[in-house]
Design goal:
The chain has 329 residues and is of the alpha/beta class. 25% of the residues lie in helices and 26% in strands. It has 2 domains: 137 residues, Galactose-binding domain-like (Jelly Rolls), CATH 2.60.120.260; 175 residues, SGNH hydrolase (Rossmann fold), CATH 3.40.50.1110. It has a 5-stranded antiparallel sheet, with no helix packed on it. A 5-stranded parallel sheet has the order 12-11-13-14-15, sandwiched between helices.
Length: 329
Amino acid sequence: MSRGKRIASSPPGAGVVVDGVYRTGPSWAGGFPTRERPSWVAIRVGSGYSRLLLSWTSSGNHDYYDTFYGAPADYRIETSADSSDGSDGTWRTVAEVTANPVRSRAHAFDFAGQRWVRMVVTRLPDRVNPWGLFIDEIDLHDLSSGGDDVWVFLGDSITAGVFDRATPRRPSFSDEIARRHPGYRPATIDAGLSRATTATVLARIDEILALNPDARVFAIEIGSNDGTPGMVEGALVPLVRRIRAAGRLVVVARIAYRTGTPEDWVAPKDAVVDEVVRREGLLPGPDLYGWFKAHPDRLSDGLHPDDAGAIAMNRLWADAVAPLYAPGD
């Protein structure tokens, strides 16, 4: 609902944050904000909404835990009922973050009686690029009817690349869901971690859950970097159970087929994935093994999908999770 809305910002130029272009398009260059001289971008939403979700991305950063290329460290989300131009009026803080460690976040908040929402950045990470703050997109979703369609895509470097929503890799998962299920457009967080194993993700899952309190579904693609089926099983079972204990839904994909190895190391690991999905009673995720085995030319280096392969992965995820959306929607 933020596409094309009226924007105000300091420094100027933030109109690009509502253009619907991620990573490959221009970003808002917010300089080097401080608490005394913050950088901010305000969006005129209008009236009639009681609850919103704001998500932002700093897509110059490839991995979820990268912040060097322009992600904010300290920021707050504010709303106003009486501002006329995004800078004046009375503002109330509805979310405040310090020491943010990641490239993308989402925040839900009450919006009854309000008209403007503003993201105010007051500090960058201690280690930051020479050009300062870069935000490529701010999305607003209407939660007035109780929506909770927020997804975290959790995995390794394959996830980091496939779900960044860059133009060459669209239609994205959200695009596919919107096309198939009118009225839905999921908010998505790309939490891919390069070189991650299943155990790596397990070690971070409590923090990732805390960083994403409004996420309903954790879509997991992990295991390519695990050396043995036992490594997958030893970490995947507690990972799934930890997420479910936090009240979230879990969907696990089969590990993608890879080329360039003397034997098929992936099939035995996918047998473990299949058994975990069956035993834990999960909705099966997409069969990335079967699809990429049938389309090895869509692997750019034998492991990572090329742009067409990424589009296919987004489509396969939308196919697999269709039962989560109401029939006929």
